[in-house]
Amino acid sequence: MIELSRHALPASGPWVDWFPGGSPGTGALAEHARTATTGRWWADRPIRPRAIAVSCAGHVLLRGDPRAVDPGALAPLTGGCFDAPDRFLPVLGAAFHRITPWERMMWLRTGPAPAFGPPPGATVRRLTAADRHTIRHLGPDLQWVTSSWGGALAAAASGHVWGAFRDGRLVSLAGTYFLGSRYEDLAAATAPDHRGQGLALACVTGLCADISARGHEPSWTCSRDNRPSRRLAWAAGFRLVREYVHHVAGAPAVLGRRTPVPATPVAEPRALSPVRG
Question: Counting CB atoms within 10 angstroms of each CB, which of 151, 174, 219, 239 has the fewest?
Answer without folding.
Answer: 239
